[in-house]
Please model this.
Amino acid sequence: MNITEISITLIKPREDGLVGFVSFVLNNWFYMGNIGIYNNAATQGFRLAYPTRITKGGNPIAIYHPINSEVEKSISKPIIEKVEKLIINNHGINTNRI
Model:
């Protein structure tokens, strides 16, 4: 799996844990965008949240998401590493406090 063109936009952390958004290109074929980056209090790290839409009936529908945990880890690892570097190096913020 080839993850390229990772673009991260950090925001002021929200109460729900949202700290930014990421987009990237997968295997030089698919642009994946509007992926939320959340502080994961359980692991003292970060997690990704993929886009969903809510139907008129109130049911969430996944727009796209990794098909299994192995794929999710392959996608998340380079992105979360980049997020951590951005936050620690550029902002001087300890990731455990976000």
Q: What stands out?
A: Helices lie at 69-91.
